[in-house]
TrEMBL record:
Database matches in PROSITE patterns: DH_2 (PS50010)
Pfam family, one: RhoGEF
GO MF annotations in UniProt: guanyl-nucleotide exchange factor activity
DH domain boundaries: 1-75
Species in which this protein is naturally found: Notiomystis cincta
PANTHER family assigned: GUANINE NUCLEOTIDE EXCHANGE FACTOR, RHO GUANINE NUCLEOTIDE EXCHANGE FACTOR 26
UniProt cross-references to SUPFAM superfamilies, sorted A to Z: DBL homology domain (DH-domain), PH domain-like
The protein's name: ARHGQ factor
Length: 144
């Protein structure tokens, strides 16, 4: 519902690096890759000679890699009652960061390249941004 967020998302999706793909396609891609791992391992097992010492390793790897999608699906089912991720501009609205149902999944530092297009010039600057991915929200910050 936030027009500024929609504008930023539209600009990101139209960037040449994204090949005009919508954000949802990038969110689904890792899950698609994980579900293909057992198929790939099964193909490797089929191509490995059964009398080879590597065959048993292939079978064990197939067994283990087949657990990954099942585990992920069970986690998704656990959280299927979530109504979805909420996107807010935190500077405009108070946000309760500490919650009993929220935990940190990943955090990290990235370099963001920001384009500033003026009337007669185009300038690119670098900014260090910090991402905090929680189970239900992504927070992007800058150091003051």
């Amino acid at each position: 519902t936030n027009p500024a967020f929609k504008e930023v998302l539209s600009r990101i999706e139209s960037h040449e690096d994204c090949r005009n793909l919508p954000m949802i396609s990038f969110l689904i891609l890792p899950m698609q890759r994980v579900t293909r791992l057992p198929l790939l391992m099964d193909t490797i097992c089929q191509k490995t000679p059964k009398d080879s010492a590597k065959y048993e390793n292939c079978k064990q790897a197939l067994k283990e890699v087949s657990k990954v999608p099942r585990t992920l699906f069970s986690v998704f089912k656990k959280f299927s009652n979530f109504e979805g991720l909420q996107c807010d501009f935190l500077a405009l609205q108070p946000f309760p960061l500490v919650s009993s149902s929220r935990w940190l999944v990943k955090r990290g530092e990235l370099t963001a390249y920001v384009e500033d297009t003026g009337l007669f010039s185009k300038r690119t600057s670098k900014q260090q941004v910090y991402f905090f991915l929680f189970n239900d929200v992504l927070i992007i910050t800058k150091k003051k």
